[in-house]
Specification:
A: 9 helices; B: mainly alpha; membrane (chain B)
């Protein structure tokens, strides 16, 4: 299959030439970019090297194309080289189509920005969880930047991520289900209701904060996803409080809730003060930073109440338990 | 605590409808929230809370005028059919 190899490698070189030249000017850790501009984190979605790559680092989305090694089972039957070459060309076209679809999707959902928030590793997650529960000894809260772009969470513990919030959200739904089970109130619809309710409260909180940021004219550099991450760190504390209620019932619940509110407030204050104050002192002096500080304080005060409101019906004997009708 | 995403959608729709019925000439100017009275401000300065709110109301009214028609029709049909 020499002709097919030459054909496919010719296509590969032509299509990847542009991408390779774009990747050559990055200084820092090896760039496994997705093809949409410089990215300062290792995109570990495609880590399995493909033997056909002739020494290039494993990475960009062509890994799914097995050039010269068709993965479908009918290859032995199609001994005809022309048919096999047509198959490989079809696979190339499919790959191109995938890239185009991804680019179109990028305009709506912005997948590469999302990938930044999920570029974490175990050490980061462990340290961050420890930081949420005990932030009092941490000294340096500034986020490290790398040429105007924040460094990936893997390299900087102060950077926000979306991995912990999403995992915490799912874990919270599951622990809520477990708690409902211990009270014999469980049914599968309850899981959906809890998930929907928690998401709705999160959305309301985000909407109010974004509205306040717009009206008070502060927080121009705080992105929506960053805010989502910060607002969702309380799910971790809610899980802890709810689990404590399993062992120690109401007393444990309130004790853990109080301590977690304290530590979460401290954590949020320190983290957001750095990011809000750093960009407010450049434009408006005095008034702007005071307003952002007030907003931050209101946010911190509100967090314990939301945590209490979302978990009280799981722990305490609240009389209002709406039925699962409709 | 049946607070679902759908009730959030309904609440948001009601709020946006409420903002959309605030007529600029007949109402907002009479209470001093019109857009023409806000011109006596510095340029590069911090726009105040009130002018930001007025701008927000004006943008919501401009942008959501047409989509609100469709959203309201859809919600009305939804409530008619599914109660």
């Amino acid at each position: 299959m020499i002709t097919s190899n030459n054909f496919t490698s010719a296509i590969k070189i032509r299509l990847q030439g542009g991408r390779r030249s774009r990747q050559q000017k990055q200084p820092l850790p090896p760039q496994y970019g997705y093809g949409q501009g410089p990215q300062f984190f290792d995109d570990t979605t495609n880590i399995y090297p493909n033997l056909q790559f002739q020494g290039q680092p494993p990475g960009p989305g062509w890994n799914n194309q097995t050039f010269g090694q068709p993965s479908f089972p009918g290859q032995q039957i199609l001994g005809d080289p022309m048919a096999a070459m047509a198959m490989q060309y079809g696979q190339t076209l499919a790959g191109q189509g995938k890239v185009i679809v991804n680019e179109k999707l990028e305009k709506f959902v912005s997948v590469s920005k999302l990938k930044y928030y999920f570029a974490v590793d175990t050490a980061y997650v462990a340290k961050k969880l420890g930081l949420i529960f005990f932030p009092f000894t941490h000294s340096d809260w500034s986020v490290h930047y790398n040429q105007e772009e924040p460094v990936a969470p893997r390299y900087d513990i102060n950077a926000p991520d979306l991995y912990i919030p999403s995992m915490a959200f799912v874990t919270y739904i599951l622990t809520a289900g477990y708690l409902l089970g211990t009270q014999n109130k469980f049914s599968p619809e309850q899981l959906g209701i809890h998930a929907s309710s928690a998401l709705a409260w999160l959305t309301i909180e985000l909407a109010i904060i974004l509205l306040a940021l717009y009206v008070l004219n502060i927080g121009n550099s705080l992105k929506v996803l960053d805010l989502t991450a910060f607002c969702s760190y309380k799910y971790v504390c809610m899980i802890a409080a709810v689990l404590a209620s399993l062992i120690f019932s109401s007393l444990g619940y309130f004790a853990v809730l109080c301590y977690c509110s304290l530590s979460l407030d401290f954590f949020l204050l320190r983290t957001l003060r750095v990011s809000l104050l750093s960009q407010s002192t450049s434009d408006h002096y005095g008034g702007g930073s005071r307003r952002s500080l007030y907003l931050l304080l209101v946010l911190c005060v509100v967090q314990p109440f939301i945590m209490y409101w979302l978990t009280r019906h799981l722990v305490l004997d609240v009389g209002v338990q709406s039925n699962v009708m409709e | 605590m049946t607070f679902t995403l759908y009730s959030l959608f309904e609440a948001a729709l009601l709020c946006v409808n409420a903002v959309a019925v605030l007529h600029e000439e007949r109402f907002l100017s009479k209470v001093g929230w019109g857009r023409d009275d806000q011109t006596t401000r510095g340029f590069g300065e911090d726009p105040g809370v009130k002018s930001q709110l007025i701008n927000l109301i004006h943008s919501i009214r401009t942008v959501m005028r047409i989509p609100l028609i469709f959203l309201n029709i859809v919600t009305i049909l939804f409530k008619l059919i599914l109660g």
